[in-house]
Amino acid sequence: MGTCVNERWGCCFSTPWLLSLFLLFLWSLCSPCLSIHAETAESHSTFTCEPIGLRMCQDLPYNTTFMPNLLNHYDQQTAALAMEPFHPMVNLQCSEDLRMFLCALYAPVCMEYGRVSMPCRALCHRAKRDCHKLMEMFGVTWPDEIECSRFPDCDEAYPRTVDLQTSVDPTDISPISIQRDYGFWCPRELKMEPDLGYSFLGTRDCSAPCPNMYFQRSELTFARYFIGVVSIVCLAATLFTFLTFLIDVTRFRYPERPIIFYAICYMMVSLVFFLGFLLEDRVACNAANPAQYRAATVTQGSHNKVCSLFFMVLYFFTMAGSVWWVILTITWFLAAVPKWGSEAIEKKALLFHTCAWGLPGCLTVALLALNKIEGDGVSGVCFVGLYDVTALRWFLLAPLCLNVAVGVSLLLVGIVALNRVRMEIPLEKENQDKLVKFMIRIGVFSVLYLVPLLTVISCYLYEHSNRAVWEITWVQERCRDYHIPCPYQVEQTSHPDLTLFLIKYMMMLVVGIPSVFWVGSKKTCFEWASFLQGRRRKDSGVNESRQVLQEPDFAQSLLRDPHTPIIRKSRGTSTQGTSTHASSTHLAILEDKAGSMHSKTSYHGSLHRSRDGRYTPCSYRGGEEQTIPPHSSMPHLDHPLSTHSSLHRLESQSRHSSQRDLVVASPTRITHGTSGGRVANDNDGASA
């Protein structure tokens, strides 16, 4: 007993009929490539009347059509794929108007350029009404783009008589008589779901091919291994810097502390590139889906969680590393120009951390909100500005150029100030040499950072200026493969150079290696040797890093007035002192006393015998001394806690000193000139 499908036809389909319909439907799905002649599949950028190649639209009152058609199908092959669902209904002749209605949309009659003839609304209603039940049986829905309300309200046959009178034979018009540029049409293989927010070459719901649209697979393999090796080297260098800091966290103080955070940032950057090397293109690319005629495409947006994580870590720490370098130049500027000491700069540490982590965090959140994440098929990571020129301009070039401008300006001012100190203030030969070495050290470190960073910025500018030409060249070369419009009147073609891309990636990683230059010293070797042997020095709290800006003689020379005489004193431990902070000056006084009792011979050489028979410290050039008033912020040494601290430090440094000298030590009178921090001990001088 058969089942009636459409009583209007006056017949009922039995089971064999249904099986035949099903086989016919399968055949129609497998025959899109046979529904169009090969000679009409070529892409073009001209308006021409071309012979109809669609098998469904043969033997019509007209035999020429034009592309793009009324549904924006660029060529007849694309139109044939869109007509596939209607093949069973046309073959079963559910309506005498369906075939003509579909051909009026997918292969409209060709007239002169600028004129289009659309089917009437009544024709659409009849075709939809007659085939509605059969379409439900095959699971086919009426597309929105051919909804009947979109067509003119008329009831005429198609094509109209006037359309046939103005139609032109394809041999009468030259292919170059009327030309236009259709722009970029997204190929079917690169189409994406609308809710993902993809965009490529200004076209929505489209993505770039993966792994890369410019380079061959062999070139990408070489580039990936190259980036992997460089990332390993940078990861090892920055990790060494960070571990050296962890061995003795008190060694690196301001103004050099930002170097440690700078190294941490680029350690994370190199780690992300290394993970991208291991994962290849599994994160940066969407897998191909042959069942839906989709090729592998570049990942965009935040729907891929791993890609989003890679982007956040890479972009955040790249920007944070650049900001930490600017903060490093600020701390050098504060130490060289206003003569700030370590404690004074360290009080601004909270502000430094807020800027260094807060600004990159805001930029990262903004990019996530704007959905500007893009996969990088070359390195295997996710970043920004790889295909979006606007994001490249405002989120990479602008911040990096601003950081370079500010950092270089502060660096030059600081170096000029240090050079003026060297020229105007008469320092001892030892401190002169240390100042010159420190200036050279700053210069070399800055060059090692600025050269890679400026190279990266140059590569970004090169990409920004040539991206449009590369894209047009790619479309021109691949338009026939993708069956999309070819560019019209291409004036310039160019291909990107893989070498410049490799230089860009290398410099993005090499920029973190200069941190090793700063921590590399004999002291670092001794610390690592002690750490590997499982022992630490007990006096590590006293013997801190004797950096040039933290040396007592050099610090006091920077802090005093150029016309103030210099007082020669014995070498103590590092003070990091300033004239504006009582704690650092207090530490300098205690250490100066310890150094004077530890080496009396050197101290006697700087004493002068007064008329009353006592020895007082003096300069070789003469100078006035002034007793600190009682209301001064400078702490007195006759405080019990200060005396106990001084005795304990003296006992650890000078084991051969007599216990009697330590017990009878009397309070010290503190004097200073314009720079402050000069010490005179009357009782010690008398006993000497």
From TrEMBL:
Keyword Transcription set for record: no
Disulfide bonds: C49-C110, C57-C103, C124-C148
Compartments where found: Apical cell membrane; Cell surface
FZ domain location: 44-157
Molecular functions per Gene Ontology: G protein-coupled receptor activity; Wnt receptor activity; Wnt-protein binding
Signal peptide per UniProt: 1-35
Residues covered by the G-protein coupled receptors family 2 profile domain: 220-527
Cellular component annotations (GO), alphabetically ordered: apical plasma membrane; cell surface
Keyword Cytoplasm belongs to the record: no
Primary residence: membrane
Start and end residues of each stretch annotated as Disordered: 560-583, 598-688
Domain of life according to the entry: Eukaryota
GO terms for biological process, alphabetical: anatomical structure morphogenesis; animal organ development; canonical Wnt signaling pathway; nervous system development; non-canonical Wnt signaling pathway
Biased composition (Polar residues): 572-583
Listed Pfam families: Frizzled, Fz
Keywords, alphabetical: Cell membrane, Developmental protein, Disulfide bond, G-protein coupled receptor, Glycoprotein, Membrane, Neurogenesis, Receptor, Signal, Transducer, Transmembrane, Transmembrane helix, Wnt signaling pathway
Stated family: Belongs to the G-protein coupled receptor Fz/Smo family.
PANTHER family: FRIZZLED, FRIZZLED-3
Protein name per its UniProtKB record: Frizzled-3
Gene that produces this protein: FZD3
